[in-house]
Design goal:
11 strands, alpha/beta, Rossmann fold, 10 helices, five-stranded parallel beta sheet, four-stranded antiparallel beta sheet, 352 residues, 2 domains
Length: 352
């Protein structure tokens, strides 16, 4: 009888612990007034995340992956969310599916949430991937949607804990840490065009900016690398380019293409393959830092001219990929029409 009672209590204890890992533990996070960014904690209301967690584990059991993306909603929108982000699946299919990539982005997650997933087995690959790409931390600096905000130093600590976990489990793999993307402050809210809008306090914006700078210290040039893509999303006044981030936080299709194309050279080098570049026109204003604009299969100069006029003709250079997959750069000079491959462009003013 005593033995039966012991077994009963043991099974009950085991039952509670199993559910603590897959449901009950998330209730505690809603009550937390503070929590270290480098300590695992499952966010509240994460039943959907647990489902996604198990789906990703099941996928790892039957597939081999060479490229792994880890992050929050910004990562998840890159191929794993429909609706207004459905078009981003095309980017995933072109750039990452051929490289046998898996998307481990979790909407609304912070460093502590990613750590919880990692410590509960999110990374269970049949063979070591070649490269992990990590973009995390912006939600740690969000006083509007979370009960507490971390300092830049704490966000760095949380990011380091994630990198350390990956390196310990997969020492032969490389890790590419992306600097936290810039996000829009309240003074840009009226410019946003894609609800829901995510505007932030100036303090939140600065914390994320500083935390992103600190993560550069994680790079060792051997297995851990760092890449700053902030310029892609910023205008000359260092405000968010809402043509690329219309909700002030998440890149749209144009923004995601700009992000991916800017990342391609580094990604290809670390993957040991060749950059997958689009047959696009890429307009880069080096002087004004207006960001990257791309037009697919542009065959006439008319759309480009219209865009030039919106920026008062102040365009820095034209970068056009043509059929031979060779990048060609040409400075723009007044009255000079450039035609390369499928791309034709008229520059109305000098570049600089």
């Amino acid at each position: 009888m005593k033995k039966l009672k012991f077994i009963t209590w043991f099974l009950f204890y085991l039952f509670l612990n199993i559910f603590a890992c897959h449901g009950f533990a998330q209730q505690d996070s809603a009550k937390q007034k503070s929590w270290d960014a480098n300590q695992p904690l499952l966010p509240a209301n994460s039943a959907w995340a647990i489902d996604r967690f198990h789906q990703k584990l099941d996928s790892q059991k039957v597939n081999n992956y060479n490229l792994v993306f880890i992050g929050n909603s910004i990562t998840q929108t890159l191929g794993d969310i429909g609706g207004k982000y459905d078009s981003l699946k095309l980017i995933w299919q072109r750039h990452f599916a051929p490289r046998k990539a898996i998307n481990l982005g979790f909407n609304g997650f912070r460093t502590e949430g990613i750590l919880w997933l990692l410590q509960n087995g999110l990374l269970s690959f049949r063979k070591p991937p070649k490269l992990f790409v990590l973009l995390i931390g912006t939600n740690n600096a969000d006083s509007r949607n979370f009960p507490f905000v971390h300092s830049a130093e704490q966000i760095f600590s949380g990011t380091k804990a994630i990198v350390d976990f990956i390196r310990k489990k997969y020492p032969a793999s490389n890790v590419l840490v992306l600097r936290i993307f810039p996000k829009g402050s309240d003074d840009q809210r009226s410019e946003a065009t894609s609800p829901p809008i995510f505007s932030f306090s100036s303090s939140d914006v600065e914390i994320a900016k500083r935390a992103g700078e600190l993560t550069s210290k994680l790079a060792d040039g051997k297995h851990v690398f760092w890449l700053d893509l902030s310029r892609v999303f910023l205008r000359s006044d260092n405000k968010i380019n809402t043509a690329l981030m219309p909700d002030l936080l998440h890149p749209n299709y144009a923004g995601a293409k700009a992000w991916v194309n800017a990342m391609e050279p580094t990604l290809a080098r670390l993957m040991g393959d060749k950059p997958i570049l689009d047959t696009d026109i890429v307009i880069v204003d080096k002087k004004l830092t207006t960001g990257w604009m791309r037009y697919e299969n542009l065959r006439t100069s008319s759309p480009a001219n219209n865009f030039l006029k919106t920026l008062n003709g102040k365009i820095g250079m034209l970068l056009c990929k043509y059929e031979g997959n060779l990048p060609v750069e040409r400075n723009c000079f007044k009255g000079n029409k450039i035609k390369i491959g499928h791309c034709e462009f008229s520059c109305e003013t000098p570049a600089f």
